[in-house]
Amino acid sequence: MTIPRDKALTALIPHVTRGDIVVAVYQTCFDWLALNPRDLNYVAVGAMGQASSHGLGLTLANPDRRVFVLDGDGSLLMNLGSLVTIAGAGASNLYHFVFANRVYEVNGLQPLPGREALDFAGLARAAGYAGAEAFSDLNDFEDNLDAILDRPGPQLAELQIVPGAPYPQRYDYIHSSEARETFRRALNG
Amino acid sequence: MSAPAPSGAAIIAGIKTAGVREVVALPDIVTSDGLLWPISRDPEFRLTRVCKEDEGVSICAAMSFNGTRAVMMMQQTGLMDSLNVIRAVGVDYENPVVMFVGLQGKEVDRLPKDSSSYGVRIIQPILDAMSLSHSLIEGPGDEAQIPATIDTAYESARPHVFLIGRPPEAP
C-alpha cells in the first residue's frame, strides 16, 4: 500500500499552524507550495540533502516555533548523519516527514541504492530520535498525526508515497531572493 | 625559535564581541585544544556538534534568518567537502556563513600558499576562484580582525572564511 503524495500533504495542512515553519524539498516542495502557499514556507535549502540541517538551524534559532521538515528519501540519504546531529541537539520542536518513493523522482526516476531494505524510521530511532513511525496507508497516517505532533521532537514519520496530482516545478521561485525575503519578513514580522 | 601562536582566548573573545553565541563544529586537530575544547566548556556558547561539515554550513545559514549569529569550525578537508553547499547556500543565496578553518598540515614557518602540502596549498586559490572572502589567523594580533570581519559578513550577507594557520594557544 502507498499514499499519494498530495493526499499526505493535504492531510498535514490542518496541523500546520500560522507560526510553524515548513522546510520542504524538490517535488514535495513544489506540491506543498501549490497546496499550501504561506510565507513561512522555507525553500532555500540550496543543495540536495540539506533540508534536515536547515530545519535544525531554524529549530535551534526559533525555539518557540515548530519546524516541519518535508524531506525526500534520496535527499535524506545524502545527509544521514543529520539524524544523529538532530537527535544529539535535542531538537524538541522538529518534526521530520520523509516522503519515500524509493526513486530520484526529479532526476529521471532512477532507483535509490538499497531501496528494498531502506527503513528510515528505523534509522531515526537508532540515531536517537524521540519517536519514529512508518506509514503506508493514508487513513492510518491521518489517524496518528495528532499523536505524533503532541509528542516532543524530534519525531520522524516515514511515508511510503507515490506521485499524486502533478504540480508545477517552480525552480525559479525556490532559488529566488523573493522566496528568501518573504520568509525572512514573515519570521521577523 | 618559531614565531608565537595566535591566542585562543583572543579568538574566542573576538567571536563573543561579534555577538556570536552559537558555535557549530566538527573537530579539527589544529583548533581542538585552543578553541573547541574551551568553547565546549564556556557557558556563554551553545555548541552543536555535527557529523559532517556541510550540515554546519546549512545550520549557520538557517540560523541567520532571524539574525542569530553563528560560526562553523572545521578543518580544511571539511571545507573542501562542503564547497557545493557553501556555493549554493552561502554565495548564491547570500547568507552570512562564517567559518573558522584549521589548516592541518601547514608548516609553522610557511604561508599557506608556500606549504609543501598540496591540500593546504590549494585552499586560498580555491577560495579566490569562488570569490569567497577569507583571511589568515597565523599569529598574535591577527585575532583583532575577527569582530569587524564577522560584522561585515552579516551586514553584507556574505560568507567569510578565517583560515587558522597555527594551533592557537589554549586559554
Q: Roughly how much helix do the residues of chain A carry, as a percent range?
A: 40-55%
| Largest interface, Cβ cutoff 8 Å | A-B, 29 and 29 residues
Name of the CATH class of chain B: Alpha Beta
CATH architecture of chain A: 3-Layer(aba) Sandwich
Q: Which series of helices and strands of chain A comes N to C?
A: EHEHEHEHHEEEHEHEHH
Please state the structural category of chain A. Answer: alpha/beta
Instruction: Tell me, briefly, the overall form of chain B.
Output: globular
- Please identify which CATH superfamily of chain B we are dealing with: Thiamin diphosphate (ThDP)-binding fold, Pyr/PP domains
Give the percentage of residues in beta strands of chain B. Answer: 15-25%
> What portion of residues of chain B is helical?
40-55%
- State the separation between the terminal residues of chain B, measured CA to CA: 22 Å
CATH class of chain A: Alpha Beta
Question: What is the overall number of helices of chain B?
Answer: 8
Q: How are the strands of the biggest sheet of chain B laid out side by side? A: 2-1-3-4-6-5
What is the 3D shape of chain A?
A: globular
List the helices and strands and how they pair.
The complex is a heterodimer of chains A (189) and B (171).
Chain A: E1 3-4, H1 5-12, E2 21-24, H2 26-35, E3 41-42, H3 51-61, E4 67-72, H4 73-77, H5 81-88, E5 94-100, E6 103-104, E7 110-111, H6 120-127, E8 131-135, H7 138-150, E9 155-162, H8 171-174, H9 177-188
Parallel strand pairs in A: 1-9, 2-3, 2-4, 4-5, 5-9, 8-9
Antiparallel strand pairs in A: 6-7
Helix pairs in contact in A: 1-2, 1-7
Chain B: H1 8-17, E1 22-25, H2 32-41, E2 46-49, H3 53-63, E3 70-75, H4 76-81, H5 83-92, E4 98-102, H6 118-121, H7 123-129, E5 133-137, H8 146-156, E6 160-164
Parallel strand pairs in B: 1-2, 1-3, 3-4, 4-6, 5-6
Helix pairs in contact in B: 1-2, 3-5
